[in-house]
Design brief:
Length: 454
């Protein structure tokens, strides 16, 4: 993978490009600094500080987007985050390798997801999955924004492929601290200037006292998400009122929409004009959508978008089989070692021995964006917002992430806009370059040239 940092002052000017700004594509230049890792205010840099860029790159009209943010990634390229190795230094190495490969897909930040597991596994892996961008080293690739714990406080009736033997109910915050390790979810116990490793927890709010626990988690900076749940509309609304701000893979592994009780989906609706739930005066939550064409029908995806576009977040729910050939692979499902198997056939992942139990996905985030563009009629800025500004806001990492404004981290994706390039597919975006902290870390053109020379 080509890695480059501009010499001299480290400033690069990208010109002749269309920038994603709000709902528009705006023709403008953008200046980035590999020294600070930030997007610069070009006018003041040039006119006030009299600084010229080291390099000017003509992008030929391509689109420049903020770096993509992936909110649900279980693993990739053969590595599963829910794994304990005899030598955990090898775990760290594999995470770093994954980060360097993942960034080439346009994902510059992500939330590594650990599924329902034993307490021992959580305590082993979480110290290695916390926020990793503080060193601001572009060559490290995609950075973790903190771990997403999908379980084990889930409803056994909506377990999906999660092992019901490890699922639990919580009666107090102490149950979560015992499960995950207090230092991993409690800043007071961690006793360090570094952030705690956990960023988000998915739980079924109808079980035990989980809804009452949500405010405590929120006070610690942890995003609370509703998922793998039989919650009624009333129970889901109570969770949102308590501080739940996210729904994990909407429609999947939850009570289906019913006209007399809309269930979790119902909290996206509103009977007034202020974007509040009609019964509790709380803002409507964000929600993840797996746009792989397998988890959801395209029409279902469009319905969710039309219901609450401001909360719409595209996720992959990708497993460690991303990037691997078809076959049957081991999977750690609630144990210390691989105790189940997943069969991969094309884009479809199924739990071995099952004809219909979907075991995550093997899709890339940009493919989700392209699917959504084809299905929804949304504009390119609207589709890209679902993997940039919206997840950044949900995770509380704006304005550093998800924006092309001056002062934001210079995490960029340069995209080819291949309108009509693929017959029958309409508009399609492709990664041309990726920039991390102001340095170019992937160049598709260079990769192609290198391949031709082999």
């Amino acid at each position: 993978m080509p890695l480059a940092t501009a010499p001299g002052n480290g400033i690069t000017k990208l010109t002749n490009c269309r920038l994603v700004r709000g709902s528009d594509l705006v023709w403008d230049d953008i200046w980035v600094s590999s020294a600070t890792g930030k997007i610069l205010r070009s006018q003041s840099t040039f006119y006030d500080e009299l600084i010229l860029p080291d390099e000017t790159i003509d992008l030929g009209g391509r689109i420049v987007s903020p770096g993509f943010i992936e909110c649900q990634l279980n693993g990739a390229y053969g590595f599963n985050f829910s794994t304990v190795l005899d030598d955990m230094s090898q775990y760290v190495k594999q995470v770093r390798d994954l980060n360097r490969r993942l960034v080439q897909t346009g994902v510059t930040s992500y939330v590594p997801t650990v599924t329902s597991q034993t307490s021992h596994l959580y305590k082993k892996v979480l110290p290695h999955l916390g926020p990793s961008g503080r060193t601001r080293v572009a060559e490290d690739g995609a950075e973790s924004l903190g771990a997403h714990l999908e379980g084990p406080f889930l409803n056994p009736g909506k377990n999906g492929v999660h092992n019901t033997k490890v699922l639990r109910e919580a009666e107090s915050i102490a149950d979560l601290e015992e499960m995950y390790g207090a230092k991993n979810i409690n800043p007071a116990v961690a006793g360090t200037a570094l952030p705690i490793p956990v960023k988000m927890i998915t739980a079924a709010p109808e079980l035990g006292q989980m809804t009452k626990i949500i405010p405590e988690l929120r006070s610690r900076g942890i995003v609370c998400s509703i998922g793998h749940s039989e919650a009624t509309y009333e129970e889901a609304s109570a969770a949102v009122a308590a501080g739940a701000t996210m729904i994990t893979h909407l429609f999947n592994a939850m009570r289906p929409l019913h006209h007399r009780n809309p269930g979790i989906f119902g909290v996206l609706g509103t009977a007034n004009n202020n974007n509040d739930n009609d019964n509790n005066n709380s803002s409507r939550p964000y929600f993840g959508i797996i746009a792989d064409g397998i988890h959801l029908h395209p029409a279902t995806t469009k319905i969710a978008w039309n219901a609450h576009s401001a909360g719409f977040i595209l996720v992959t729910d990708a497993m460690h089989l991303v990037g691997l050939p078809d076959g049957t692979y081991p999977w750690t499902n609630g144990g210390e070692a691989a105790d189940h198997f997943i069969t991969k056939k094309g884009a479809v992942l199924l739990l071995e021995g099952s004809d219909h139990t979907i075991a995550g996905s093997s899709i890339a985030l940009l493919d989700c964006v392209n699917n959504f563009l084809r299905w929804s009629g949304a504009s390119v800025p609207e589709a890209l917002r679902a993997v940039t500004a919206t997840p950044a806001t949900m995770l509380g990492v704006q304005p550093a992430k998800g924006s092309l404004e001056a002062g934001a981290d210079a995490d960029l994706v340069v995209l080819d806009d291949e309108t009509g390039a693929v017959e029958g597919r309409g508009r399609s975006l492709a990664v041309h370059q990726v920039w991390k902290f102001g340095a170019k870390v992937f160049d598709g053109a260079s990769e192609a040239e290198a391949g031709e020379g082999l």
